[in-house]
Structure prediction request, 347 residues.
Amino acid sequence: MSLTVVQRFYELAKQQAEAPALGIWQDGEYHELPWWFVKSKAKHFGLGLLEEGAREGECFYLLASPHPTWSYAELGALTVGLRTVPLPAEIGAERLEALFRIHPPVFLFAEAKDFARLRPLCERSKGVRRVILPEEPQGGPEGLARSFRRVFNAGIRFESKHHAAYRRIRQGLTEDREMSPLRVAPDGALEEKPLRYGEVNEACAKLSHALGAAKAPRLLSAADLSRSFARVACLYWPIFAALQSVLAPRGEALGPLLRRFRPEALFLSGPWLEAKAGEELGKAFALPAEKKVSLGWLARRRLRAKLGGRLRCLIGDAAPPPFWARAAAALRLATLAAGPEAPNFLL
Prediction:
């Protein structure tokens, strides 16, 4: 039986401890994080959840957030055998309350503004043990709310007490175990269909086969990782294929990021799929209709440089707009968009 994504994560972090795993923007700067650092964040957050009373099979809800602790929180929850339920941040209180009845949560990860909106629901839902916030609540911890750092520090303090149980849970994960009780489509629609470790393995293997598994840094948009396809492509696949991910900040112009990071693979979502993105990249996309594919070598060279010089494949949570389709055809880039034709079955 093959390793689950969690087991692969720990093996990769052990083998490539100092290699870059994740690039994030924080406090106005770009930070390149090694595998050992990302593993420590996930591991000690998971241990902190055990200290808070987490038990295998319970549900950990995560409302979408661009904060880097979102990724650590999901990986950490999975490592202690919790089922994660990533959801769009804009989900309404009524819809969330209905989900609470079907899949009762014990933990909820949310930004402070979302917690303020959902606080009455969390307080009357007796099963919710803690709400995890990316940052420390103003005025210190109160009631249900705890910061990611506080839970993480609890995991460090109590590592010796929990380590044996933690290791047993992690090693006991199998392909037929459930990761999430539902799935989220690119448009935010919820589907009551469990997502299992084996299905993620198969989807990642098909992504690697379809895209040639570019063994180099990738540039990812600020995709909403609550969507199942985006989460597989942006969080699980890098672990599966030992890739470095670069998570771009929301609203950041694409052109400068392409020139700075020169990615081999690019995940397109949100504003980067809009028509104005074509204008931003300039005349390189203004290809004559009769020359969509058969460009001269100089035109191809200029277009490739405009896209960073290394781009080999495009992934998207929607079909690429015409200017991206023309560029992909001209440069013979492998492309993959979420939908019935995508080599996965997460939608």
Notes: Residues 35-51 form the longest helix (17 residues). The CA atoms of residues 80 and 165 lie 9 Å apart.
